[in-house]
Amino acid sequence: MNEKDLVYLWNDKRRQIISAQMHSVIALAVVTVMALMGYFDGASTNAFTFAALFVVTVGSLSVLNQFAVIREAASIVKDLEKIENLSGVGKDISASGTYLTYTRILMVVFSLALLLALALLIL
């Protein structure tokens, strides 16, 4: 592949990461608003369990999808590193390996923190 194709793929992977987050953000927002408005006050254990499992399922699938996209983006970085005479954009993307690692780590940290916060909010 040439640099132009790899840069196109890089941008496609960035769009996929953003899209993968939307489902979990919407689910988390809805459940959080419901909890803050008191819809879970006096609710049955089944309602709590359903809400928690719903958010965990949607969030887990989103995180797994994001990990796959990050892995593919890391391959693009490696391929770009092999090309000589890169453009400025190509050089910036090829230097993004560390950024991808940090993104992966922060995704885990934030996911666990949100899960804990939601669990405390619901309970």
Helix and strand arrangement:
Layout: H1 3-36, H2 45-81, H3 88-94, H4 97-122
Helix pairs in contact: 1-2, 2-3, 2-4
Brief synopsis:
The protein is mostly helical and 123 residues long.
Please characterize this protein's 3D structure.
The chain has 123 residues and is mainly α. The protein has one domain: Topoisomerase I, Chain A, domain 4, CATH 1.10.132. 85% of the residues lie in helices and 0% in strands. The chain has four helices and no strands. Helix 1 packs antiparallel against helix 2 (45-81), helix 2 packs across helix 3 (88-94) and helix 2 packs antiparallel against helix 4. The chain is elongated.
Structurally, the number of domains stands at: 1
Strand content range = under 5%
Mean pLDDT: 85
Q: What assembly state would you assign to the polypeptide chains in this entry? A: single chain
Low-confidence stretches: none
Let me know the largest β-sheet.
none
Determine the fraction of residues in helical runs and give it as a percent range.
over 70%
Total helices: the number is 4
Q: What structural keywords apply?
A:
Topoisomerase I, Chain A, domain 4; mainly alpha; 0% strand; 123 residues; elongated
